[in-house]
Design goal:
Blueprint (H helix, E strand, L loop, with lengths): L1 H23 L16 H9 L5 H7 L3 H11 L3 H15 L4 H10 L5 H5 L3 H11 L7 H16 L1
Length: 155
């Protein structure tokens, strides 16, 4: 009886712990191109037909100019559209920024890693709160993303 009660308490503790971790620390899950604001439905459909449904998968499939040209021929999506989507996907993929935060940044006019690199983290964090969903990023997160954007611009 005591063993069963102890196991039940341990199980409840684990469930509550993981629920708390999920609620208070996880900002985004596996990103999807379909969740990104501004991506045309026909482009999503054509990419989906060849198995490209997430920003990381898209970035892998377009990692070189030759890869981008090949994907354009394969899908019928123009190279210009793919380059524009690659720019957006780079921002989504930046240190776990994710799609919800990308959409919020987009509403603030920040659509490129290079634009994020130019931001003052404190000012951006304040502006971000005005458009944020239920989990606005912390100042620490904004600082990490701006610093990472700056380091990518320098390399």
């Amino acid at each position: 009886m005591i063993t069963a009660a102890a196991m039940l308490v341990a199980l409840l503790f684990n469930i509550l712990t993981y629920a708390g971790i999920d609620r208070f620390t996880v900002q985004t899950y596996q990103p999807s191109l379909a969740q990104m604001d501004g991506v045309p439905a026909d482009v999503l459909g054509k990419l989906s037909q060849v198995g490209v449904v997430s920003p990381p998968a898209f970035l892998r499939r377009t990692s070189t100019p030759e890869d981008l040209r090949h994907l354009a021929r394969q899908t019928g999506v123009t190279e210009g559209e793919l380059r524009a989507l690659r720019t957006a996907a780079r921002l989504v993929d930046l240190r776990g920024l994710g799609v919800p935060h990308y959409n919020e940044l987009r509403s603030l006019g920040v659509t490129r890693v290079e634009q994020l690199a130019l931001q003052d983290p404190e000012t951006l964090a304040l502006q971000w709160r005005s458009v944020a969903g239920k989990k606005p990023p912390t100042l620490s997160q904004v600082k990490v993303w701006v610093r990472t954007a700056r380091s990518q611009g320098a390399s």
